[in-house]
């Protein structure tokens, strides 16, 4: 019964991508919440080190079988592990140390657009009118929600150093997503295990530098809890769901589901932080979901 349920879940792209957005919304909340307590590179390095240890026991048999193809595909696997795992998360956590929640949520809306641009630039993908309209509607919903229904607030939007780091991270994620079609034909457990390990290794020298410079990791309850969350949910589970979702429906349609991240973030803020819901939340959520549904449709 469990196997059949897992197979149905693993074949449902939109449920997988919705779970991805939910886990990544939590990652945003945690990353911003502990930025003054847990150093950003240390958080990223710990995240991928622990995620590798979690996934490795399940992946060992597949890694042994896939090893000849893994060895032959190391350049592209190093590419995926470096930009989509190591650099993306380090830049994101570092950016969250310097920017506001408002700026980060607004910039998040550029993620699906950057995925589309990467797909068009490197693979000549075509974007339908329906997809373009859906993206525009979702962006409007995100901006309406983060501006609390007063779009005039956005005129004071100013980019800072943290914002540029987040945009750089999102650009790398666009490349990662677009190039997933070039993923070697290895088991999905082999793929995530290898890329997680590469991400941790790539971050190691930067983690050492951060530690030596004085920003050190203190293993208290808050640190351990945050590392446990980001290692399991936004890492192991989210990356498995996202990679499979892109495999099922393609980069452009899957990327639009990233608009659900700020939507879930707003819901979490209301449910967990006690923020009061307003009409602009409902309007923004309706616009985001409408754009996602429109963009995700075929034909």
Can you describe this structure?
- The protein has 299 residues and is an all-alpha fold.
- It has one domain (29-296).
- Helices cover 79% and strands 0% of the residues.
- It is built from 13 helices and no strands.
- The protein has helices spanning 2-10, 13-33, 40-72, 74-96, 101-108, 111-123, 129-146, 161-179, 188-212, 221-249, 251-256, 260-272, 279-296.
- Helix 3 (40-72) packs parallel to helix 10 and helix 4 packs across helix 9.
- The longest helix has 33 residues, at 40-72.
- The radius of gyration is 19 Å and the shape is globular.
- 47% of the residues are buried.
- The model has no long low-confidence stretch (mean pLDDT 85).
The averaged pLDDT comes out at 85
**Coarse structural class:** mainly alpha
Strand content: under 5%
Structurally, the number of domains stands at 1
| Separate helix tally | 13
Shape: globular
The biggest beta sheet is recorded as: none
Helix content: over 70%
Q: What is the count of β-strands?
A: 0
Radius of gyration, rounded? 19 Å
Low-confidence stretches: none
Order of helices and strands: HHHHHHHHHHHHH
Distance between the termini: 35 Å
